[in-house]
Structure formats: structure tokens, C-alpha cells
Amino acid sequence: QVQLVESGGGLVQAGGSLRLSCAASGSIVNINVMAWYRQAVGEQRELVAGITSGGITNYADSVKGRFTISRDNAKNTVYLQMNSLKPEDTAVYYCNAVRVVVGIQTYWGQGTQVTVSS
User: Fold this and answer.
1) Cα distance between residue 2 and residue 59, in whole Å
2) CA distance 106 to 97
């Protein structure tokens, strides 16, 4: 089992910045990908950014150039630096980990609210 604990959400004005953190614990060996998803009210959960154990990243088009995902393997933590925030970035942000052992195992954090006021 893998436990994911997010922190860093909050209320910020448009144009501001926030940094989210996600600390992984438990059976963290063979976590291949860590990612951030978000879900706004009435919307489906969507991928925001992901990073592999080797440092390869990908981003949703809507956040490219504004958000940066990074990973500290020594601390088993993944970060999401969010700059130039917009009201449409308002959502609950979830940390995700994918572990490949025998088959694919997916884990989720409890979510952290990000609210961007106009």
C-alpha cells in the first residue's frame, strides 16, 4: 500500500502562486509515475501534470508554461508549482501514484482545495 498526503492548497487571487506538495509513504518502491489531477465542481477529474521516476514530465495544455511538476526522490515527495493562477484553476487537486509490481496499482491522496479569486 502507498499513502499519499497532500498539502499546500488554499485561497489565492488571480495571478498569484501556490505550491502543492504530496508526500508518499508505505510501499514506495516501484512507484513509476506520480501526477496531479484536479476536479472542479460538476466536472470530471482531469490530469494536470505527471512525472516519471526518470524525470520525464507532461502537462495539460491549459497549464503549460504556468505550472511545474517536480519530484524529490530522496524525500518521496512530488511538488506542483502553480504560477499565474486563473479562476478556472479552482478545483480540488489530487495526488496520484502509479506503481507497477505485478500489474498496475493506482493510489490517490485525499485532495486539497485550490481556490482562485478574480
Assistant:
1) 24
2) 6
Among the listed residues 57, 106, 110, 45, the one whose alpha carbon sits nearest the alpha carbon of residue 81: 57
- Answer for the pair 95, 34: CB distance below 8 angstroms, yes or no: yes
Q: Which residues contact 38 (CB under 8 A, 6 or more apart)?
A: 45, 46, 48, 89, 91, 92, 93, 94, 114
Q: Give, for all 118 residues of the chain, the pLDDT tens digit.
A: 899 999 999 999 999 999 999 999 988 878 889 999 999 999 999 999 999 989 999 999 999 999 999 999 888 899 999 999 999 999 999 999 999 888 899 999 999 999 999 9
Alpha helices in 1-118 (DSSP H): none
Cα–Cα distance measured from residue 19 to residue 107, given in angstroms and rounded to the nearest whole number: 21
Cα 85 to Cα 7, 23, 57, 76: the distances in Å are: 17, 23, 20, 26
